[in-house]
Amino acid sequence: MNITVIGGGSWGLGLSKVLSDNGHQVLVYDIDKKLVDKINTLHISPQLDEFIPEDIQATNDMALAMKHADVALFVVPTKVLRIAIESALPYIESPKTFINAAKGIEPKTFKRISEIFYEMIPQKYFKAFVTLSGPSHAEEVIKGLTTAVTSASEDEEAAKFVQSLFHNQQYFRVYSSTDLKGVELGGSLKNIFALAAGIIRGQGLGDNALAAFMTRALVEMEKIYNYRGANSETLYGLSGIGDLIVTCTSQHSRNFQAGYKIGSGKDLDETLDSMTMVVEGIRTTEAAYYLSKTAKLDTPIIDAIYDVIFNRNDPKKALMNLLAREQKAENC
Ligand SMILES: NC(=O)c1ccc[n+]([C@@H]2O[C@H](COP(=O)([O-])OP(=O)(O)OC[C@H]3O[C@@H](n4cnc5c(N)ncnc54)[C@H](O)[C@@H]3O)[C@@H](O)[C@H]2O)c1
Predict the structure, then answer these.
(1) What is the CATH number assigned to the segment(s) 2-178?
(2) pLDDT per position as a tens digit, 3-36
(3) From the candidates 17, 96, 103, 190, which is the catalytic residue?
(4) What is the reported pLDDT for 272?
(5) Residue among 6, 126, 18, 21 at smallest CA distance from 68
(6) Quick one: which atom of ligand 1 is closest to the CA of 9?
(7) Which of 240, 278, 296, 331 is the most buried (most CB within 10 A)?
(8) How many degrees, rounded to 5, is the angle at CA 221 between CA 156 and CA 183?
(9) Ligand 1 centroid, distance to 7 Cα (angstroms)
(10) Would you tell me which CATH number, out of the four given (1.10.1200.10, 1.10.240.10, 1.10.1040.10, 1.10.150.20), belongs to the domain 181-323?
């Protein structure tokens, strides 16, 4: 298959390696000219400082990128997703399978990424829309370390088609799902709790606190799944609890790293400025907070993280406020 990957950052090149290893012709498009040159001449991922297969080519030319694409895989941070789709639109001339591997919900509109694709790209250009999500740090995938993810689409055949593109028997196992909503929500919401996990660790709290937060995070995620009509069983799959575990417990997670710095008392703006890679959890916290308020959901962890990030509340006070809430039954 001829596959174009839009976004040659950590995850874009991690997935490009999988596709290239599986025998596909991969062309990477990125707006960063220096990055494109490094991919073509040095065959490396500069962000991860790792070699990538030499047959992966890169370009700054979107016309060429779209001409190449039987399948277009988008892997750009969600805050630039609309810009990336906009720049591709004039060059989409035939129906394609669109895949997204970024994780986030749009603040204010509360739109999932599939909803943004369907809003921006005319129906006649869709073969299908599929999302790929799950516990997958690019740092490990690029080294060929064992990973399992989920390919999800409302169109079961499309989910299975994308599963077959990425699946291999060496290191990358892919499951399929038709619960697109649940898979998109899981991959997005977990980033909020990764920030929370980092804050907890940054404050010097231990495994008990982390386990409690992750468990209560699942309760809050389930409320949002139910409100948005996702299947709550998906929460117990790779894109839900799987991604929650990896992101709340791993140093590779930049959401965790950002939370850790904030929890350790570092200035919030300095922390965010110092992060060279995207911290999706910030935007998703804003989206989930307003979604939760609109729907009148009880989501105290999301509220506390919002308070720390957007109202500059002291993380220690936010934690004390959480502990000071009235006693309640566990299953509500
Ligand atoms: N890094 C991971 O391990 C990982 C794993 C799973 C999911 N994700 C998700 O994937 C998304 C991307 O993350 P990343 O780690 O690859 O980010 P990154 O910052 O490493 O790379 C983003 C790339 O997008 C490019 N870009 C920016 N604007 C663009 C545009 N308009 N058109 C084309 N390219 C553009 C940048 O130049 C950069 O190379 C995020 O939503 C992230 O949550 C990341």
Answers:
(1) 3.40.50.720
(2) 999 999 999 999 999 999 999 999 999 999 999 9
(3) 190
(4) 82
(5) 6
(6) 21
(7) 240
(8) 20
(9) 6
(10) 1.10.1040.10
